[in-house]
Amino acid sequence: MDLIDAMGGAPAVAEVLTPVALDQTYTYAIPPGMTLRPGSIVTVPLGPRKVIGAVWSIGGDSAVSHNRLRPIDRVHDVAPLADALRDLVDRVARYTLTPRGMVLRMVLRVPEALEPEPPVPGVRRAGEAPQRLTDARRRVLALLEDGLAWTRSGLAASAGVSAGVVDGLIAAGTLELVDLPSGRLPHAPDPDFNPRELTRDQARAAAELRRTLEGGFSVTLLDGVTGAGKTDVYMERSPRRYGAGARRWCWCRRSR
């Protein structure tokens, strides 16, 4: 359920799970105009500090009056946690008898990833060529004839010159510094790319694993010495199951 405006008749509270050693969620007031949905990543006050958490649900009755609830501080501009991922957090917490907040902590392990990527510094042609035009400078300017911007290091490498040549053109006013957009996100991994050829024993184990995954809930132990190929057997099937949207989990623990 999406929340468009907290003052427009929609629920005004949200249950937020924080990455601390507790199983419960905390109730927070939703500021007017804030857009939320289950799974939204938010920053909330927790005691004297602010922490990152995830909205677990929206609405419901609060045991604390609304005027005493602390408001959500910020909604991060990232994709919300999918229903399946939040369900996995709950399931792992129940199965391992671990507080849900500690399982969520593994999901939100790198808070810096929630911030927008900084722009990449670049250069482009901005003025006339300098009076002293060396061969190195000519090669740099030839690459900039199309008007496109380059990174400083990429331009120097493509022209076969040192970074000092590019810096000299910047100082002369021939080039100007610009901000380039950060790199695009990589494509989704392809589980069928460069498949491993399994040995006879690995193929037998993979076939048995496929058979158990076709049924209901089960626990499968892959037993083998280090280097026996347990990961190859597990990965031979699991990515395909996840890609098909199947709700299966297989835990593979290496012996030490």
TrEMBL record:
InterPro entries on file: P-loop_NTPase, PriA_3primeBD, PriA_3primeBD_sf
GO biological process: DNA recombination; DNA replication initiation; double-strand break repair
The name this protein goes by in its record: Primosomal protein N
Domain Primosomal protein N' 3' DNA-binding: 15-108
Source organism: Methylobrevis pamukkalensis
EC annotation from Swiss-Prot or TrEMBL: 3.6.4.-
UniProtKB keywords: ATP-binding, DNA-binding, Hydrolase, Nucleotide-binding
Residue stretches spanning the membrane: none
Top EC group: hydrolase
Keyword Cell membrane listed: no
GO MF terms held by the record: 3'-5' DNA helicase activity; ATP binding; DNA binding; hydrolase activity
